[in-house]
Amino acid sequence: MSEFLQTFLIAIIPSTITALLSFLASWKTSNTQIKTIKEQNKADIEKLIQQNKVDIESLKEKHLLEMELKGKEHDHQIELIKLQHENEIKKDEESIKNQFAANAVGSLFGAIFSQESPVSGTINEAIKKGIEDSMNKKRDE
Questions:
Q1: Local confidence band at 49 (pLDDT 50, 70, 90 cut-offs)
Q2: Three-state DSSP class for 116?
């Protein structure tokens, strides 16, 4: 059995040493790669944070411009509504003035030409005379 043990030890010792050396080499390599990846991730995260800050500022500025535009549109709509309202008021005032003038003229002429008016007989006679004179002139011609 001593020969078996000797052969066994000759085979196991170098393979154990090789395995330990391979393990240590791969452990060191993996630690180095992990550190490199951590540093890359940290740099990428910083880059993304900076990009997000820029994007947020851009969105804030865009929102501000949109709000200013909406404010201007709102002011413009208010001006249009005011102008429409003023035009409607002017139109209503003009309509009331015209109606008042028509009523006043109608009342005046109605009073002048009514049968109870003392002036109506004189006016009717003057109109009648004017019509007769013009008819006579046309006949004479």
A1: very high
A2: coil
